[in-house]
Amino acid sequence: xxxxxxxxxxxxxxxxxxxxxxxxxxxxxxxxxxxxxxxxxxxxxxxxxxxxxxxxxxxxxxxxxxxxxxxxxxxxxxxxxxxxxxxxxxxxxxxxxxxxxxxxxxxxxxxxxxxxxxxxxxxxxxxxxxxxxxxxxxxxxxxxxxxxxxxxxxxxxxxxxxxxxxxxxxxxxxxxxxxxxxxxxxxxxxxxxxxxxxxxxxxxxxxxxxxxxxxxxxxxxxxxxxxxxxxxxxxxxxxxxxxxxxxxxxxxxxxxxxxxxxxxxxxxxxxxxxxxxxxxxxxxxxxxxxxxxxxxxxxxxxxxxxxxxxxxxxxxxxxxxxxxxxxxxxxxxxxxxxxxxxxxxxxxxxxxxxxxxxxxxxxxxxxxxxxxxxxxxxxxxxxxxxxxxxxxxxxxxxxxxxxxxxxxxxxxxxxxxxxxxxxxxxxxxxxxxxxxxxxxxxxxxxxxxxxxxxxxxxxxxxxxxxxxxxxxxxxxxxxxxxxxxxxxxxxxxxxxxxxxxxxxxxxxxxxxxxxxxxxxxxxxxxxxxxxxxxxxxxxxxxxxxxxxxxxxxxxxxxxxxxxxxxxxxxxxxxxxxxxxxxxxxxxxxxxxxxxxxxxxxxxxxxxxxxxxxxxxxxxxxxxxxxxxxxxxxxxxxxxxxxxxxxxxxxxxxxxxxxxxxxxxxxxxxxxxxxxxxxxxxxxxxxxxxxxxxxxxxxxxxxxxxxxxxxxxxxxxxxxxxxxxxxxxxxxxxxxxxxxxxx
Length: 742
Hints:
Layout: H1 15-20, E1 35-41, E2 47-54, E3 64-66, E4 91-92, E5 98-104, H2 107-115, E6 117-123, H3 130-134, E7 146-154, H4 157-160, E8 166-174, E9 186-192, E10 196-201, H5 206-217, E11 224-228, H6 242-256, E12 260-263, H7 266-272, E13 279-287, E14 293-305, H8 311-321, E15 331-339, H9 353-371, H10 375-380, H11 402-413, H12 415-425, E16 431-444, H13 450-454, E17 457-462, E18 468-471, H14 481-493, E19 500-502, H15 521-542, H16 552-566, E20 569-574, E21 583-584, E22 589-590, E23 595-608, E24 613-624, H17 631-651, E25 656-657, E26 660-661, E27 680-685, H18 702-719, E28 725-726, H19 730-740
Parallel strand pairs: 1-12, 8-28, 10-11, 14-15, 18-19, 24-27
Antiparallel strand pairs: 1-5, 2-4, 2-6, 3-5, 7-15, 8-13, 9-10, 9-12, 13-14, 16-23, 17-18, 17-20, 21-22, 23-24, 25-26
Helix pairs in contact: 5-6, 8-9, 9-18, 14-15, 17-18
């Protein structure tokens, strides 16, 4: 049957409320007797807390003051492990680490009070760079500063070097990147020993926050409730960090007996919260004279900051993606996440893959140059084919055609003609043009056994009026979750989208569908929604109350009759790990992901060699993503991700001083504006994935992987500059251009 709703751009489910101002974000919400909270933070990178001094000019008796000693449960922000405290207790490990909390009804007096608290710290030696952490200049975490490490081995790389005609080495770095969601971190909490803890907030993962509060307060599950409010963007930055601000708000509410609102201003949000992990990747690649890869040795390191948070998850994805969509018989990848005395780094769209893919795609352009091949020809000779194995020994079962994607992308941008023309014109012009590309893959869902461990659930319930309610823990934060779930359910049930309601994510009402991350929401949770819908439909068919071809009126009548006769019409579906997928966590081999998105991106740039100003003039993004549920939303995901990738490549430079970000404001942390972003031309290839809803795969992150290397390769083509680090700011590029006398 041809789809009616899948593949069409129905209006956003929450669009009207957002454009009319009816949507209520966390700062729009208020409760009687509500007071405001804030955090007093560490001025030092590492050291022992000697004293906390309160200036006598503030009426401290009017304030609620919380320290680590006021925590009723365990002083930790529970995530993967419990190494990060909610409030520092005697020792600090990074600038801006929370030390104590203040609350008051007057938020302006509250700010004065924050400035009147002085924390005296006896400083200890600190580590600020990835390199110093690796050499254990100072051991600041565990025995060796290493949060997590992975090892991937395929073939016999030690023997393979002898068959290589060329061995090409290179080292590449990426900087931190701020998520810069439009709405800062914010929560409201109510808490008391009698009623338990309830938190409302701008967040991605309600059940993450729920888990953290359970440990912090030592309460049973039913005494903790977390509700997601309208959320103005997340990009990974509201995956784990809301557990921290929720903990602080709830502790203040617990002690004061009043609702407490905490909203970060932009400066605090930028200085104190997580960012994309900085990285360093070292490549050693063996290749034959005709351009076949025979050995890939990759060393990948990320800077995790002061506490582990999600660094192992970020490291895992970066490791698995480090060898790209290429066939090579001999691969060795060693990776690690290390500790430094900066605020912890965390999830950001793509998490790990943008870092390692940048290094690979830049390096392969250099390999092609050494061999004497065009960059596209080197890749064409090494693209993975169905039946071959990726670096982690995963057999590619998808009908992947990377060469076809590349051909289509090149045709759309006239790649070959432009590359030739630009090389000729650049000899005479100070504004030089270049064109470059990146080819890559991105796994959808949690890695390996991750989805099996999560055991996600989603439910669907139908009323006697034929109205459908979807219960899922997945959150809407601007990316289109509610609309896509609605389309999936409407298609499966054969009804209209306006008959469907998405229940607000609330841990007291919705099942745990896992976090809204990792390009998993549509593919994994959407499939649970589809299955629940089809189960309900089957109940109606099997009961004899509904014929196969039915109208909206007949559906409504059948629902009413079923409920009257049998009781509630509902279905809960739990994720079942496919029996034919196998992953070995110990050896780090097997089916890393159920499906991948495959893509080729092409960037065209101009570089003013007098000022080193780079402009991206055109951008073509071609990707195979399974069935596209909503074309407008899907294209919007790609366009937004490419814009963020431009920032990662060219503008967004976090400047650090003694572990503290010193450009934490939007006047000097530069992001692309509408004037900087070129036309982004988005094209989809659709090969339905049998385990996705209507054949869909995940598309929320792949665009961050390929944008930066495509731009960097275009700059290198335009100028001959050796681009090994991003962001490529004008200052950085000018120094490089001067060294090559462009």
